[in-house]
Structures are given as structure tokens and as C-alpha cells.
Amino acid sequence: MSAIVDVAYKEFRDGFRNRWMLAITCLFAVLALGIAYFGAVTAGRIGFTSFDATVASLTTLTALVIPLIGLLIAYDTIVGERDSGTLLLMLSYPLSRVELVAGKFLGHSAVLAVATIAGIGVAVALIQIMTPSARTAAAWVDIVRFVASASLLGASFVGMACVISICSRDKSRATGLALLTWFVAVLLFDLLLLAVLVVSGGNATERAVYPYLLLLNPVDVFRLVNLVGLGRGAGNDVFMAMTADHAYQPAILYGAIIAWATGPFVLALAIFRKQEV
Amino acid sequence: MQNTIEITDICKHYGPTFALNGVSAMVPQGKVVGLLGHNGAGKSTLIKLALGLIAPTAGRISILGQEPSAAAHELRKRVGYLPENIAFYGNLTGIEVIRYLETLKKAPKGEGTRLLERVGLGAAVSRRVGTYSKGMRQRLGLAQALLGSPELLLLDEPTTGLDPIATRDFYTIMHELSSTGKTVVICSHLLSELEPHLDRAIILGEGKLLAQGSMRELREMVGLPATVVVRLAKGSDGFLHEHWMSGLPVRLRPGATDVVEVDIPLDRKMDLLRRLIEMQDVEDIDIKQPTLARLYELVGTSKMPGEGS
Description:
The complex is a heterodimer.
Chain A: H1 2-17, H2 20-38, H3 51-74, H4 79-84, H5 86-92, H6 97-130, H7 137-167, H8 171-200, H9 204-213, H10 218-226, H11 237-243, H12 250-274
Chain B: E1 3-14, E2 17-28, E3 32-37, H1 43-51, E4 58-63, H2 73-77, E5 79-82, H3 94-105, H4 111-118, H5 134-145, E6 152-156, H6 164-179, E7 183-187, H7 191-194, E8 200-205, E9 208-214, H8 215-222, E10 226-232, H9 239-242, E11 250-252, E12 259-264, H10 269-278, E13 282-288, H11 292-301
Parallel strand pairs in B: 3-7, 3-8, 5-6, 6-7
Antiparallel strand pairs in B: 1-2, 1-4, 8-9, 10-12, 10-13, 11-12
Helix pairs in contact in B: 3-4, 4-5, 8-11
């Protein structure tokens, strides 16, 4: 167990040192503040307005950015060590393969989570200071839900990056696979579902099944957790077309995002345990 | 004497390809042993089996009296390993790398720092490993292999990139270790450099054991001759040919008129030397033992004398 902590701490410190954490923190702070301040610009206003609208816009942007960062910080976590010769060394040390991958997964996920919390935290603090109307219990619930689900979304993509890293022969393949994964999860998946829906005309069965198909993509689960369950508009037509008339059980959504946060990691462990070195 | 490594009829195959096929060998405690072979001979597979990174298809391997496996954490603390061409973490400093590895190896705190001094990296501990030369990375690799005072060291091409002084220092450390009962296994292609430092060698070829034994046993086994180089006094060119050395393969050294070389079986070497010493025309005598490279060449490419056709 202590080996997991040692490996995780090293990865966390690397993330801190490589300025990933600083970059992500700043990105979130700027995004959150920018959206909060300029979010109503199309309505002819600037300045802090609706907190709900801020969370909605932030969710849409986060759903694009977090998967990419999760994949980028972790895609070379195993294949990089294989390239530099340290993987064999690590495996000759008194720590198991599970400990090695778990430590890496936790370390990278922690970088993402801490950066998200810090970035959003700075923005939220400023919004709270400047708009007294945002100081409600409901707003805090939204913030906690957002930060927690963003961290879980990050963990999901760090887990996928671990799978990619374990299965790739070299770094360039891992980079390609990471970008492909991002493209499919963030862009292609929804478009494909929508295309099928449009072509078929959307009969009753499809309308019943489609909302559940969205649970097959962690990015959509993240959006659902933060938007649909709350009755907010997403600013994303594709997404809304498929979820407009469905009420999700919160337990299903929370269960789905936790499953997505842990599933890829468990898969990575299973593959790595059986892999020949 | 106890054996640190015992390998019995070990086989490892990947699909239809045999990486190792029925190899039996042993490494006695407190010896410096060379693991030799061409690329694809099975050296790396053998090291991975010894580390418990892969499981044998058949046969048995025992390290320090235990079977190596991924779960044998206690055994792994007693084994030090240096992989070939290791680059480490370029973004960390030398001291950060060794402290991280020290923690993972559960070695005493501060041991890593002492080992960096011992391998001559004391002045570079605060530099990023990414700026290290290949030789410096090898030294760092050696330092980490020594973490936790392991009883067995498995070193893959350990002197690659080291300058002559560092190479000498490396072998000094190896001899110190073996004199305190530690066992050292070195995989290397640098045969001439390795030779004076080995107690024994295991030679692999195409997944099979070609030869093993002490250096003397190996030389005798293949019947390689020693070469005696004789420098003659001026004016006595070629006299050895005409007299008592007839029948031996004597040749003039190319480009020289006063130096002759003669290949002589090891069991007749002393007799020849006695006779040469008595001769007045002989100014100097030098003896070249059959080299490991020659030995390796012979057992690596053809069948051993005495082996069935």
C-alpha cells in the first residue's frame, strides 16, 4: 500500500513540477471567470449575472478540456517508462504491477482534481465576493457537484490514458490513440448518435433507448450530471436533442460517473497484470 | 559452496519461438560471473526469469534459495538490477531519483546519497538527470542497483558509456562486493574488458547453454592455445624455426623481423617457457592467454570439441 502512495506522490510532484497543475488551474480560473463575467454578453450585458448560466457554460467547456488534459498528462505513463528503460527496473523492485499502475493513476488523477478544485475555487471565491446573489446553499451544491464530477471525469480519462499507455508499443502510437480517444468521446460519439436518430426519424423505441446510450460516454455522463438533472439548457443542440424529454434518476447518473472513473483504471490493471515485459 | 542462482532445464517460449530451451546453469555465491551470448541468445530472457518478471514455460529457477515471482517482494529487496540503456527520469535530479528508488526499495534513508558519492556522482546530485551523460546515467544505475545492500547483482551491459577510469572504479566495486560474499552477474558484449574480472562465465547461444565454468575450465574445455611472443636479440632472425621449435606453428610477427609468435597448447606452455629462458638470444617473452573473445567465438559459432557430431 505504501508503494502506491510513493508512486502517486512522485507522479503528483511531477505534475506540479511540469507546471501541468499550474496551467490547468489557471485555465479553469480564467474560463470560470470569463464565462461568469462575459456569459451574458449576447443579451447585451456584461458582468456577473446568473450563477446557473455560468455552471452550464462551464460544464460545456470543461467537457471538452478535461478529457484532453487527462489523456495528455497520462498517455505516456507506462510507455514512457518502457522507452526510458525504467519500467523493467520498477518491476524488479519490491512493488507489484497493481501498485505501480494504481500509484500512477492516483497521482495523475490527483493533479487534475487539485487543479480543478483550485481553479474553480479561485473563480468561485471571486464570483461570491462580487455577486451577493450567488451566495446560496444551492449554488454551493452546484459547485461541489461540478468539481467532484469534473474530477471523476478526469480520472476516467486518466484511466483510459493508462490503458492506451500500456497497450502502445511506443509514445507516438500512444499520442495518436489518445487524440483519437478524445475525438471519439468528445465529438464523434454524440454526432453518430444524432445522425442515426435523424436518419431513422426517431421512433418511440429509439427515444426510450437513446438517453441510456449516452451513459456509454463519460463526457455525456458528466454533462448529464451537471445539466440535465438540473433542468438547465446545455447550449449544445446535439446533446439536448437526445435528452430533452427524459428524466434521469440521479443515482443512475452518479453511479455511471463513478463507474466511468474506475472502469478504465480496472481495465488498465487487468491488461497490465497479464502483459509480458 | 552455496549457489546463488540455480537453473534447471529451464525453457521459455513465446508461441512457437524458443527464447530458452533446456538451459541448466548455476552461479556460485561470491563470484563475478559473465552471462555471454550474441543478440537473441537468451540472456535477457534469463535475467527476466531471474527477476521473476516472466514465468518459465518449463523447468525451474532458484534465486537465493527461493523461486522468483512478482509476489516475492522480500526476495526482490535482496536483488539489485541494472537494465541496459536506462535513461531514468530526465526531469528529476540525481538525488531525487535515488531517493524515490530508495523509498520503493525500502532501503535505509540516506543510503542513496552515500551510494551516489561512492559511484562518483557526488558533484552532480543536484543536476537534472536529463543533462547527464550516458556514463553518468550508468553510474546512477549502478548506485540504485546497490540500494539495500543486495546479495545478488544482475547488471546488463553495466560499463557501456563509462570512461576508462569509471570502468576501473566499477570493477573495483564489483570485486569489493564479491569479496564480501555478494554475487555479481554481468551481461556484456565488451569481452576483452570483462575478461580479467570474471571468475566464471555462462555462454548462451540460440536459447541453449553452450558452455559454463571457471575461465580456466572454459579455456581447457575448448582446447585453445596460448600465444607466446618471443623478442629475439638482433642478428638471430628466424633461428627458432630451424632448431627446436620445428613442429610448432611459429610465425614472424607481421612487419617485424625480430619478433616471433608461437601458439602452444596450455599443457605444453611451461615446458616451452623453461627452454626459452635458457636461450641467450631471447630478449623478452610475453604470453597471451587465449581470450574470452576467441573462446566465445569458438563456442558461439561451432560445436565444442568432444561434442557429438
